[in-house]
Amino acid sequence: MAVDFEFKDRYNIDDLISIVTLLRAPGGCPWDAAQTHESIRKNFIEETYEVIEAINHNNTEGLKEELGDVLLQVALHTEMEREKGTFNFDDVCNDICQKLVIRHPHVFGEVKADNAEEALESWDNVKKRTKGIKNQSESMLSVPIELPALMRAQKVQKKAAKAGFDWEDIDGAFDKVDEEINELKIAIERGIQPEIEDEFGDLLFSCVNVSRFLKLDSEEALKGATDKFVERFKMVEKLAQKSGISMDKASVEELDMLWEKAKEIIAE
Questions:
Q1: Closest to 81 (Cα-Cα) out of 92, 66, 95, 72
Q2: Of 29, 87, 132, 192, which is least packed with CB atoms within 10 Å of its CB?
């Protein structure tokens, strides 16, 4: 027996909330009803990355679709809490509206912010005050550990820099990279795996520091490098096949020659 539902030519946010409620209610969808916050938490991450993919490809229709998928995740998690009587969708909307008003005193209050940098500073000041953050270490701890490692490192470093804990210029950051490379080599020679991992982490962290001085997003920079590697590797495979070279049996010199040729072709 079908659920009691009114089909429409066009739906709105209230319809989305009603549909999600129906899906999780008795007689609805067994899969939706069985889900918990924990069981679908990775879905939220996946949908968010698909939004980013649509943005990167300037895909307007795709962006509209993927934003809908993210909104579905919000509706599902909210419905789970509504069922427990903790909060509902209106509460979620109310809280974000309250936050936006409170954290924009340069719009809704008397604070002055003439540019984006000053506006961000105003936002951060209100955030620290409302969350009771008294120092930069507490501010660092507020950065979610669940963030991608490079992104988290960059955010933590920015907070340290605001407290004055920073190099005077990029030269200091580069010197630290050299220092960490040497320490990693020593750890490798010692052959102690936890020590190697620790020093390798320090090297990555110091590289993020360099990206910060260059005003680069380290996460995006690594993504670009990985994409570039994939494109070049695809070309290497084509060249190897064309030349009758078996890549798994080729020498390092042959593979390096193919790699350099691939770089030249892609750069043309």
A1: 92
A2: 132
Q: What is the DSSP string of 191-202?
A: T-HHHHHHHHHH
* 255, two tokens: 């593979």
Q: Which residues of the chain have pLDDT under 70?
A: 1-2
List of residues 6+ apart from 98 with CB closer than 8 A: none
CA atoms within 13 A on the CB side of 188: 7
DSSP-based three-state secondary structure for 59: coil
**Spatial CA neighbour of 69 closest among 49, 89, 55, 97:** 49
pTM for the whole structure = 0.80
CA distance 81 to 79: 5
Q: Supply the pLDDT for residue 3.
A: 75
Q: d(Cα 106, Cα 118) in Å, to the nearest integer?
A: 9
Give residue-wise pLDDT tens across range 113-167: 999 999 999 998 999 999 998 888 999 999 999 999 999 999 999 999 988 999 9
Task: List pLDDT tens digits, range 41-60.
Answer: 999 999 999 999 999 999 99
Q: What do you get for the CA distance between the two ends of the chain, in Å? A: 63
Residue 174 burial by Cβ neighbours in a 10 Å radius (0-12, 13-18, 19+): middle
CA gap 169, 209 in Å, rounded:
11
